[in-house]
Design brief:
Number of strands of chain B: 11
Shape of chain A: globular
Largest interface: A-B, 23 and 21 residues
Order of helices and strands of chain B: EEEEEEEEEEE
Largest sheet of chain B: 7 strands, mixed
Oligomer: heterodimer
Helix content of chain B: under 10%
Radius of gyration of chain B: 13 Å
Number of helices of chain A: 0
């Protein structure tokens, strides 16, 4: 089955700086890669996703890049703000199979 | 659109009792619903996949007789934790998809925090 690794487990950045979270996956047939943001005690919320036929996608301050050859994808948050503090999960999926989550990254934005 | 409602949001029960958690898709028909469990500071672990009108598919290590899943309609799935024990205390989250397919996003419920005393 799919295995998703996520790094770092914790990340602290100064407000205004950029944050990058990286994930690798094992199944080369995986073709859907979403990112979720989870605030304490709340549900995960989809913030951006990318399909395998695209190398990069951007939505305002958030961008995701995908390298299929290396089987890794990354989340980039620019101009970070205190409200970006949360736990972020990457995930990977092949076709109709289940979504496999990474282990999460606790992002703290330092004012 | 794509709102998933989960109830209750929290529950405290005594060891040995059963607890039922409901998951409803409010504005769409969910072909598939998923149940996850999340322990503190850990990732979401899939427990089972539930398709309307058929038996749930459980992940390895999840006891199907302990975690009963019913998906009787396209908008409702229930998870019953039977004979709950303190080690079952966790955050249970359901999710639903509108359609099958590689790029169908998951829509999560608010989660249920279960505490077994």
């Amino acid at each position: 089955g799919e295995n998703v690794e996520q790094h770092p487990s914790t990340l602290s950045v100064q407000e205004g700086d950029s944050a990058v979270i990286k994930c690798t996956y094992s199944d080369s047939a995986s073709n859907y890669f979403p990112w979720y943001k989870q605030e304490l005690g709340k549900r995960p919320q989809l913030i951006i996703d990318i399909r395998s036929n695209v190398g990069e996608k951007k939505d305002q301050r958030i961008a995701v890049t995908l390298n299929k050859t290396a089987k890794h994808f990354s989340l980039h948050i620019t101009e970070t703000q205190p409200e970006d503090s949360a736990v972020y999960f990457c995930a990977a999926k092949r076709g109709n199979e289940k979504l496999t989550f990474g282990t999460g990254t606790r992002l703290t934005i330092i004012p | 659109g794509a709102v998933v409602s989960q109830h209750p949001s929290w529950v405290i029960c005594k060891s040995g009792t059963s607890v039922k958690i409901e998951c409803r898709s409010l504005d769409f028909q969910a072909t598939t619903m998923f149940w996850y469990r999340q322990f503190p500071k850990q990732s979401l672990m899939l427990m089972a996949t539930s398709n309307e009108g058929s038996k749930a598919t459980y992940e390895q290590g999840v006891e199907k007789d302990k975690f009963l899943i019913n998906h009787a309609s396209l908008t409702l799935s229930t998870l019953t934790v039977t004979s709950a024990h303190p080690e079952d205390s966790s955050f249970y989250i359901c999710s639903a998809t509108k359609r099958q397919g590689a790029d169908s996003p998951l829509h999560f419920g608010n989660g249920t925090r279960l505490t077994v005393t």
